[in-house]
Structure formats: C-alpha cells, structure tokens
Amino acid sequence: MMPRRLLLLASLFAAVTAHEAKVLSKSHDQQKGHAAIEEELRHDRLQKPEHAIPLGEEEGDDVESFTCTLTGASGKDVCDGTKDDDGTGCVWCILNSFGFCCSEEQAQTFKQAIPTIDCDDSSDDDKAPPAPDDDKAPGPLWECLESKDETACGAEYDDEDTEDVDEAASRDATNEEGDDEDYDDEEEQDEEAEQDGDYEDGDEEEDDMHEFVVDTSCVLSAMLLDPDDDEATSEAACFQARDISGNPCEWCAVAGSPFRLCLSESQAQVAEYVGAVCTGSDESFEPEEFDDSCIAHMHEDSGLTHQGCWKHMDLDGNGCEWCNIMGVELCLGGVQAELVEHWGATCVMDDSEHKMAQEAIQQHQEYIHAQKEAKRIERAAKGIPEEEVQEEEEDLDIDSLWLTSDTSCMVTTLRTSSSDDSELACAQTQDAKGNPCNWCEMGTSFNMCLNEEQAEVAEYMGIECETISTDAQQILKEHAARSQEYADEDEDEEETDEENDAETAEEEEEEDDVGDFDTSCILSMQNGPSKDACTATKDADGTACEWCSWNSFQICLTDEQAEFVKPFGGTCDEEVNEELSETDIAEAKAVKEEFWNCIQHTGAGVEACASTKANACTWCNTQAGAGVCFSYEAVVAVNGNEFFDCIIDSEQHAAARNPQDGPKVDTSCLIDAGRFGDEEKCESGKDSVTGKPCEWCQLGSLGVNACLSAEQANLALPLGVTCKGKEAISAPEGDAAPLFQSLPNDFLPCLSQSSSVDVCDESCTWCDLKGSTSGAGLCLSDPVADAVGYLTGESILDCTEPEEEDSPDAEETTANVVLGGKEEAVDPSVA
After folding, report:
1. Which of 294, 581, 612, 782 gets the most CB atoms within 10 Å of its CB?
2. CB of 657 within 8 A of CB of 606?
C-alpha cells in the first residue's frame, strides 16, 4: 500500500488529468495537429469563459489568481467575505475533511474534475441572504448563536464593544444633523485605519493559511510510525509531536473506519466539522467498530453487480456504493468509499453516476486516440519512419493504463533520509518515460519528487516545482561517473584479474537471476488478461512482451520468461508473421507430449524416472526438498537455475538413486489438465490419493484456470479462487490462510516490487527463494505470503522475517526518531 501522502496526491492528479481529457475530447477535432490541440488545452485551462483576453494584451496577464486561496484560507466566513482580483466573490470548498478557499472559476473547474467536492457557490445559504456574486459573511447574530458556552458568548462582545457601538450611534446622529464636513474627515480617517488593519489582517490570514494548508508536521509524524505499533503507542507518539506553531498534535478517527490521522489543531477542527472525532493529549476516545456490512455482500454473492450493491445499506443506514480501484470493483459503505476515493478510486451510487463514470473512461480513451493522431501527423510531417511512430503509440497505450500513477519519481523521496539527499537523488532520477524528475516544495516542511505531469498539477495547487536543466543533468552524470572512478581506484590494488573476472561473472549471474523476476509484463494484466495490452507493453530491458498460453492458462511474459516456459508445453505468440510448417507443428507437439510423459513419473521417484524408454527423462532435485521428473527440453531450460539440481550423467545418477524428501503434492489432476487442457477432461479425471473427481477452478479477474484435486480446491478457496460447484467460501481448519477475496487488488502492486528486498514496500512481505545465493525472491502481499507458507511449509519461498537478537543492554538502549520535525530519544521497550 502506498504511503498516505502519495495516495492523496495521486487522487488529485488523476482527477485533474481526467478533466483535461474531458476538455480536450470536447473541444478539438481529431484531424487537428498537435500544436492546435496544445493551444486549445492551454486556452481552456487559463482563459475565463466570460472574460476573453482582449487583442493586444500579453498572454502572461491571464495567470491563475490565488488571492482567494491566500486571503480567505483561515475559514469559510472569511472566504465568503473576500473578493477575487476581478471583483467576484470567493468560494469555500470542502473535499472530504479538508476545506480551502478559491475563486468562482476555480470552483467550477474543481467540481467538474472531482465529483465529490462540495462548494458553497450556490444561492442556498442558511446564514446570510444570497448575493449576486456569492454568500455574504455571517453577521454578529450568527456568530453569537454559534457560541457553545456562556464564556465564549460573553467573549464575543464585551462592555467596550457596547460603548463603541453607542459612540458610533451618537456620531451618526450628529452627522445627520448637518456636520457633514467633520463626518467626512472622520470617515476618511476610519477608512485609512481600516486599510492598515486590512493589511495586518491579510498577513495574519496568510500565516493561518500556511499553518493549516502547508503545515504537515503532524501528518508526517504519523507516517514515520511503525505500522505494527498498537493504537495506544501510535496515539502517544502523535501527542508528543508538535505542529509548525509548537502546539501539540491531535489524534483523529473517522467513524466506521480503521484509519487514524495525526493533525494540527486547526486541521482537527475542520475534521471534526465533517464527523471525525479528535482528541488532545488529555483526552481519549473509543473508535467505532469497522463496518463491513457492504463488502460482506460480495462474500455472500460472488456474482454481485453494481445494481445489486446499491440495494444494500451499511450500519448507519446509508446506501452502499460501487467502487472501482485500478480495475478491481468492490461494494463499500459510505465512509469506506470516501476513504478509497483519496486513493484514486471512483465510487458511484446510482445508474446516472455509473454512466458518468463510464463516459469519463471513454473520454480518456478518446484523449489517448487524439494524442496518437497528433503524434502521427507530426511524425509524418517530419518524415519519421512508421516503426518509431508505432513505438510512441505503444507508450501512449501504457500511459492510458497508468494515468498519473507513475511512482518512479515519488519513491525517490521515500528512499532518502534528508531533504538535501532527496533533492540530489531526485535530480538524478528519471520517470517511467525516461524524463528527468522535478523537485517540488511547499513551505519548509513538505517536499516531493514528481514527474512532469504530476508537477504540472502540483503547481496548479500552489506548490513550487523546479525542473532540472539538461546542462545540470549532464553535470550530475559526469559527477557520478567521476565518483565511480574514484571508488574503483580505492579498491584493493592487489586483487588479481582472475578475481575481478569472477566477481564480474557473479554480478552478471545475479542480474540474470533477478531478471527472471521482471514483473513489467505480468503487470499489464492488472485490468484483466488482454493480448493487445500485453504486446503493447515492454519489459525492463525495453523488449516487447509476449502473450503465452498453457492450455487454458494465459499470461504476459518477458522474452526470457517465455523461453523458460516453452519446454513445459507453453506456446508464446512472438508476432512472427510467417506460417509454421507441418514439421514445426509436429515438433512442438512432441516437446509437449514428452514433457507430460516424464512429469507423470514424478510421484514414483528417481528410479521410475530413469527407467523410462531410451532414458528420455531426467530426475531433478530442488531446493524445496522435493524432486521432479523432467524431459530433456525441460532440463535444458532450467540448466543454470540454482533452484534445480538435475542429474545429467550416469555417475551423478548412480550417486542419487533415492529422491530427496519433500512435501507430498498430488499432481494427477494438474497433469490431466495440462495434457488435455479441457474443462470436461478435468472434471472426468480423478485424483490419485482419494479417487475424488478433479475440480475446475479460476483465479479472480486474472482469467487463470487450473484443474485441482478436491483437497487443493478447498485450500485455494480462501485465496479468492472460485471452483465450479463450490457455493460457500470457507477457510480450512487449523492454521489456515486468511480469507482474501480480492487477490488481484494487492497481489500485483506488491509483485511489481520484486526486483530486490530493498524495493519491497513495508506493507508487503519479502519471500526469499530457497537456495538462491543472489538474493532472488518475490514481494508478496501479506495474505498471499501467509498462504504460501501454509501450503508449502516454507520449502520453496521463505517469507519469515529474521528475528532480532536481544541486546544485553536493551534496557538502556535508546533510538532516535523524528517526530514533528524534531529528533527525540525514545525507549524501544516503550514503543
């Protein structure tokens, strides 16, 4: 799971990107060139509809105004009483628990881009009569009525205020009698005093804006906590933190949600306005129980649709909402839906909203199509070959999947400790497209490394971003090269050339091992299996992915992974236009038949494998302890892989007659499905242990089918696998894997971080490949890692975390942690 600050940014980026797509699709003709499209998009974002730029004026005069944001940030009442530069009234908007002040034009843009935002630019207001431009600021009557106790009410207007009112009334009476000249002089003095006061108030309001919007001290202190800490420990750490003004932070909870936030006092007041419960260090609260009533209906009915979801209600009596998160659809309660919308999800409550969401997706696809057309016209005008045009279109297809969720630049901030190191690392980093990252800052307590598209949106929200120039990039590269040279010179000069060659060979072997776990291609299936999406994707080396089939199983693989699965009966489409000859087809069938003829001898052991006709099969031991009987082509494919140890000559075979002990796995059903690849054949087969019929099962939205024994099917059901004829989903008895119905939701994001243990996020679990000396392994979601350990006994993947040794001086040991921007010593035994 991404850190919360990234998720909030990602949701805003995705929303504004979708709005740009909508504007572009409505405003331009698909036959226009690239320059015309960019001009229309710029015109829509900068120019006000009712006030076109007069001819002769500079384009720079029409820059977004942030007068409302700066002057009216301290609260709704101040915002409604503030005017923008063009004289229109400012508007107060609330996005979930966060309020801000903006101009009328900006409010309209936000409402089109973010459906859940609530702005008070309508004529309906309980506190003051509506004005043509906007709501008037509430009068003294409402300010008094809002007082919650006698002390607060009396503090609003004291005796001095009453005397001032009497003096003002007396003065007005005198002026009415004819002392107009004195009154005019006095009025001018009052106006000058008011103007001076306005400047001072403006400074105070600007300070309040920085305190509320820019101050992330409390929020960041909570992000630095250990996610495994209990509620009391995290709450105590929040109380120890301080906001930018030095005031204690407050601990806030949202009803019906398991999430907690550490906020400053002003932020906590806004959060309480929308239903949150916030407490200071001298208070405590009991969080409400997590409401799972809506999502429970998906467990009861695996075929639940959006219309079926809307018929149910959560514990608060609110209708359930149908949410789409990266292609995964869930039925959630109101509070849960509000939370996942921070993560870029789209939640709808009726057919009209569902239709609007589908139209937004269609508009984005039209935007991508328009970009392709513009690129094609531009390339054709320059005479660039068609092959390069197709490559750029493939990149656009990838962009249509990821939108603005490219985290290549964002993760740089998380991997470095200090802001200086983060800024330097950001300057040396490139995004997924190979473009340099941008360093963005907001105040003194928040900074982030973003790509170009994300920086564009951030600047629109008032965040300052700096793009590293090409010259600076070249200087940084040269500096890195020189630093590497100095490091090489410092190495021991007594090392021999042979040792250096051995070290180089070992590093290349490590790269090859890790390369087998390149998940770039398999991630193209995150929205469902698609051959077109697969072939349009490229792996980490820039090579096109291949669409591979293994009977009913279909998957997107890199070219190296594709070569590995072919000897096991897999077939991959390499976009070769030439037709296969009958000899090629016969050889492919023979390879597949030989594989299954050998694999079926696995259960009988090494002797049965060796006694096959013409010694066509070979026994291979594995690091998991169990052995397997492979055909010749399969042995060639796994040769050099540390996990397999194959007996390739007669001497080795004589020395390893007895198979290694390992987990007993019934492969009879799997073999029948692999040999015939048919649901009917699967159901007609029986497993070799109990004699029960095999079962045909499917894994979530990935479209992966498998033929399993009855026992294997029961173990797989809690992992989100659905098997034909199985109505109820229940966990196995004993130390069983937990229920986890949305496997593709967390499985692919964690799997994408399998390049190394350092990249694997703390919300996922790193599993070492047994027997690997190069540190190869997989990054899995916690439930999947638990299931792997349960099903294999940690014989293939080791997902256990290393135990920390107790220090003899543990009682006196302290650790330095950063809370609220301050480094403090904390006793680990207390944490």
Report:
1. 294
2. yes
Whose CA is closest to 104, among 89, 125, 87? 89
Beta strands in 339-471 (DSSP E): 346-348, 438-442, 446-450, 464-467
699 strand-pairing partners:
704, 721
Note the residue count of the chain.
Answer: 831
Q: What is the pLDDT of residue 50?
A: 40
What is the side-by-side strand order in the sheet with 704-708?
704-708, 695-699, 721-723
What CA–CA distances, in Å, run from 151 to 142, 148, 327? Answer: 16, 9, 54
Long-range contacts of 323-330 (CB under 8 A, 24+ apart): 323/347, 323/348, 324/357, 325/745, 326/526, 326/527, 326/745, 327/526, 327/527, 327/528, 327/701, 328/701, 328/742, 328/744, 328/745, 330/295, 330/298, 330/742
| Biggest distance spanned by C-alpha atoms of the chain | 125
Give the three-state DSSP class for 599: helix
Q: Dump pLDDT digits (tens) for 286-336.
A: 434 456 678 777 767 767 788 888 888 887 778 888 887 656 677 888 777
Residue 622 buriedness (CB in 10 A; 0-12 / 13-18 / 19+): buried
Contacts of 95 (CB under 8 A, 6+ apart): 110, 114, 116, 117, 118
Whether the predicted model's global pTM rises above the 0.85 cut: no
Residue corresponding to tokens 């236009």: 577
For β-strands 764-769 and 777-781, DSSP reports them as: antiparallel
Tell me the average pLDDT of the chain: 64
Q: Which residue has the tokens 């998160």?
A: 325
Whole-number pLDDT of residue 299: 64
| C-alpha closest to that of 590 among 556, 631, 645, 619 | 631
**pLDDT higher than 60, residue 536:** yes
pLDDT at 327: 60
Q: In sequence order, which residues have a C-beta less than 8 Å from that of residue 450 and are 6 or more positions away?
A: 9, 409, 410, 437, 438, 440, 458, 465
Least confident of 114-118, 315-319, 497-501: 497-501
Identify the CA nearest to 18 among candidates 363, 397, 401: 363
Between CA 166 and CA 181 the distance in angstroms is: 21
Domain positions in the chain:
64-154+187-214, 218-279, 293-349, 406-488
